[in-house]
Amino acid sequence: MNASSETTKSEPIWGLVILLGALTAFAPMSIDMYLPSLPAIGADLKASAGLTQSTVAAFLAGMAIGQLFYGPASDRFGRRGPILVGIVIYVLASVACALVTSAEGLIVARFVQALGGCAGAVVARAVVRDRFDHTETARMLSLLTLVMGIAPILAPMLGGLLLAVGGWRANFWVLAVFGLVVGVVVVIRLGESRSSETEIQARSESPLRAYLSLLGQRRLIGYALAGALNGATLFTYISSSAGLLIKTYGISPSIFGLVFGVNAFAVIGSGQVNRVILRRWTPDQVLKSGSLVACLVAVLLALAAVTGFGGAFSVLPLLFLLLASYGFLQGNTMAGALNIDPRRAGSISALMGFMSFAAGALGSTLTGALSDGTPRPMALVMLAAVVGSALALRTLALPKD
Question: Which of these, 71, 158, 201, 372, could form a disulfide with 343 (CB 3.0-4.6 Å)?
Fold first, then answer.
């Protein structure tokens, strides 16, 4: 019997949501919490701003690459084992981050930390698909953003507090404890959900063959590209936020966390609106409308950034609206992709995650390379990403009317 039929109604839904939300929060916690400490890290380790910023890029690279291994492993060996292996790696690497004495050592430790932390996000999405159908998967993934979205709001503020109280190394000690606590809860509370059909499919083919099969499915690639390119807008914003808010618009570092948190509410709020409207519309219907609205907002944002009209009073509200599109597209594109081939849910989750972080790293790198002290590079990169996302949906993913 498929595990989904046994667990959907018998387990407390909020307990499952909180646990899966914690598993997907490894990445935002690990990125956002130490952002306020970057200048202090550079000063303490005697590293340039570029070398210090590379610790963020190393983490994103580790998140992208690591997911490709955990997805097939969770299909073949079950969901619990890969999560626990990843958490052990994450905790040990977090301790290493707290003890490093050079920027190069921190870059390596951050890369390994991401290799462990990505397990939770990959397998959590597969667990959702194990237990729920297409529409309910989309609603559950939207619900996870409510839990996961707390991290970008609280993490920078917590990171700033830890920096003041215990220095930048305290951030990584807290992350190690967070990973340890989540690992204990996984052992105690998370039951195995992989179906026998998924196990049989995974054992009948190599991970490479599984990925090649998925890459040959046109609609799946459409959903994956649409989600990844839309997600690149969020990564681009995160990497540009400090420069845009503090340097360009003169917002004080003490207020930075508050503004960052307000924009995080755009992601959280839209995810919950998406969960409600899925009671009436299908995920694909939401994607059609949401992608078009995102394109319109991205055009307006680019115009405001290029012309300078209204300054921060135009750019920041439009940025808020564009970030809100994340909540409408991510859960629905993921659910659409997972529904195409549920027997390879782990591998699909890994492929989607890899493409998302790769697109995010590309968008962040491109924005940084074009940086000119204005919001123009960020806005133009976001526009290209959002238009590409809409085209992927229309030409590849969504059924023709």
Answer: 201
Would the pTM of this model clear 0.85, i.e. be above it?
no
Q: Which two tokens mark 148?
A: 């996961």
Helix (H, G, I), strand (E, B) or coil at 399: coil
Task: Give the burial class of 352: count Cβ atoms within 10 A of its Cβ; 0-12 exposed, 13-18 middle, 19 or more buried.
Answer: buried
Q: CA 86, CA 331: separation in Å to the nearest integer?
A: 23
Q: How far apart are CA 69 and CA 23, in angstroms?
A: 17
Instruction: Return contacts of 375-380, CB within 8 angstroms, 24+ apart.
Output: 375/240, 375/244, 375/248, 375/305, 375/315, 376/305, 376/306, 377/240, 378/236, 378/237, 378/240, 378/244, 378/305, 379/298, 379/301, 379/302, 379/304, 379/305, 379/306, 379/315, 380/302, 380/305, 380/306
C-alpha 379/C-alpha 383 separation (Å) is 6
Q: What string of DSSP letters covers 166-209?
A: H-THHHHHHHHHHHHHHHHHHHHH------HHHHHHHHTS-HHH
| Domains parsed from the chain with CATH numbers | 3-397 (1.20.1250.20)
Extract the tokens encoding 124.
């959590």
Q: Of 233, 314, 228, 240, nearest to 266 (Cα)?
A: 233
Owner of token pair 């003041």: 164
- Cα separation of 328 and 272, whole Å? 9
- Measured between its terminal Cα atoms, the distance across the chain in Å is 36
Mind listing the pLDDT tens digit for each residue in 41-93?
Answer: 888 998 887 788 788 878 888 988 998 999 888 888 888 999 999 999 999 99
Q: Where are the alpha helices (DSSP H) in 194-252?
A: 196-203, 207-215, 218-242
